[in-house]
Design brief:
Layout lengths: L5 E10 L3 E8 L2 H6 L2 E5 L4 H9 L18 H17 L3 E11 L4 E3 L2 E5 L17
Helix pairs in contact: 2-3
Length: 134
């Protein structure tokens, strides 16, 4: 059995315009209905992973909202970095979804996973991708 914790979702997909995109949010209908999901381009850095977790509107739930125990965000950051690395190192992985990922006070448990493989899409650029603020 998985320990009690906060249910989250980690995804990575290939966007035709931007390349590989890493996504994070809480699991469940309220987050899906409100579109409370954050995205970063792959490859993600440790700073990207930390910002990804903190950028969703429901992030306080992860850090001890209303007296609850904070969850192991370091383990969650590590998982995000590993998914990013997997997608970056293996272009045949065109989609990955880990749902739910139960993040407890110590550690996390992935309860569901799906991976979609296909021939790698053609890349016309050779450098790293970044989102721009302009």
């Amino acid at each position: 059995m998985a320990p009690r914790g906060v249910d989250t979702v980690v995804r990575a997909t290939i966007d035709p315009a931007a390349g590989a995109v890493l996504s994070f949010g809480l699991a469940g209908a309220p987050s899906e209905l409100l579109g409370d999901t954050a995205h970063r381009l792959v490859p993600a850095t440790d700073r990207d992973a930390a910002e990804l977790i903190r950028s969703i509107r429901a992030a306080p739930v992860l850090f001890g909202w209303r007296g609850s125990a904070p969850v192991d965000t370091a383990a969650l950051e590590e998982l995000l970095l590993r998914v990013s690395r997997l997608v970056d190192d293996h272009p045949e992985v065109v989609a990955i979804a880990l749902e739910p990922v139960v993040v407890a006070t110590q550690g996390l448990t992935v309860l569901g996973a799906s991976v979609r493989l296909s021939p790698p899409p053609a890349r016309t650029d050779l450098g790293p991708r970044r989102l721009s603020n302009y």
